[in-house]
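Good morning N.,

You mentioned wanting to compare the apo and holo forms, so I went ahead and generated the holo version with iron/sulfur cluster. This is what I fed in:
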Amino acid sequence: MGLDQHGRSIDYLRISITDRCNLRCLYCMPEEGVAWQPHDAMLSLEEIQHFVQLAAAEGFSRIRLTGGEPLVRLGVTDLVRNISNTPGIERVAMTTNGILLPDMAAALREAGLSRVNISLDTLDPEQFTYITRWGRIEDVFAGIDTALIVGFDPVKINAVVVRSLNQDLLAFAKLSLARPLHVRFIEYMPVGDVCGSDGLGWTAADTIPNEELIQLINDHARADGIGELKPIGGQEPEGWGPARYYTFEGAQGTVGFISAISRHFCAECNRLRMTAEGTLRPCLFSDLEFSIAAPLRAGDDVAVRRILREALDSKPDEHHNRVGTERLMSQIGG
Ligand code: SAM
Ligand code: SF4
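and this is what came out, ligand included:
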């Protein structure tokens, strides 16, 4: 397994397979989209798959496909199958907005996708359309239902919390009661210029620290008569990522809190990111990048592995509260 300069074992590769999307979430992408990478600038599915083989040889065993919206990339099911069949790869997961899951989930499951994170920031239909600019919340609900029916495990719901959106946090947390859904609240990260003064006007003050979130939810939960969230204390299944997990008594699912900012988890960082055009990013918050596209296309595996190693060796010890980046989340993959 590959160790980085700080002794962390890096075995988790997040691959953005497209910068395009069927939604335009306010904090992620401008309405008109971004200057899309031309198709031939993006790695082909074969190139992605070959890179996964090389990464597996360097100790990567877990892959997450993301985007943009990974389900809009043609051939994604075959990609999942080929990656799942790659020696050394133990798990293939996906982060999706869920809209296309009703049609695609069964085939993806059969192809080897085992876990999905579905992004959903509100339970209010109108607010959903506002945040996503044109999405219909029923489509995501249908996606969640299908994800459970076909047997993805776990099915996590990722909600970015923004103070000025005033989301119904208790309603979200209660999604974990009756079904095995794992709701995770993610601190909003002011990344890219759609968010700040040039765009939405959301600032660092819109990030609600997790401690405050937990308290808010517990206050409402007590008033609702369902008790309080209790830490599941070290019972997290392996590979559940950097959240702190809690549960309501008798609930089938859990409620997690991910604080990239107020309580960063850099010391446990186990990941490397790759953008759709083949650029490795050692840290979400740093613009330091390493392109493997040219050697990958030229079939120069030795150079690809050398650059992969350089990227690993360049992982910083922590993000040092640097949060601006030159790319938007949709171009990195979150
Ligand atoms: N389209 C897929 C989706 O929405 O799940 C995958 C890509 S999306 C960029 C991945 C995740 O990044 C989503 O959960 C999204 O909410 C999150 N994200 C995007 N911009 C963000 C920001 N500024 N702060 C925190 N999370 C963000
Ligand atoms: Fe698309 Fe996901 Fe970004 Fe929303 S968060 S615009 S669904 S890539």
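The chain has a mean pLDDT of 89.

Happy to go through it together on a call whenever suits you.

Best,
F.
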